[in-house]
Amino acid sequence: MDEIWVIGAGWFGLHALRKLSQVRKDARFVVVDTNRDQLRQGEGPNRVLEQADGVSFVHEHLKPDEGPDWIIPALPVHLAAEWVLAQMGPDRLIRTTVPAELEGMVPNPMRGASGDLYVSHAEFKCPEDCAEPADMCTVTRLPRKRNMFEILNEAAPDSYLPIVVRSRQLGAGIGGYRPRQLFEMLVRIEKARGDVLVSTACRCHGVITALRRL
Asked: pTM of the prediction?
């Protein structure tokens, strides 16, 4: 039985839960959120509801040799970056400002409240059930642009090491990643020196956080 962690029970998290539970009837879902009322909306068979901070939950419960098959990040923060910050601690890793020159290297950049940089090929609202086909955009019907996870793996100013966690589709419009991808990122950052750009990205969209290895 697959286990899937849905980290965040807001609109997207509950949407992912409902859609996936319809097609993955043998999966076990763990839903995490601080808001008890939001969590209650996720009640159902094969579901465990955890009232907790999402980043703290993943930091405390995710182990290299045990854990879920998939993690769906559905928080208003960059889960992968926040997890590695918690894992390494402020004596070894800190958040820094995403360099301004990166904005000229990526499509449609937008700064978030926390300083993260959000990027997208789309200049429109994507359909919630986009199947992310490899050959074309489902909205424009034009050939797909280069995969965002490939772009972010190369787009980095001098002295920055880019590390990308690729988000893969678990269902139409629903992305997630394997826990091993987080631990692979952790190993690379532990070996790094200086500045790192950690990204999570699918074919079309991404979020970038700047970190500094101490």
From this structure: 0.95
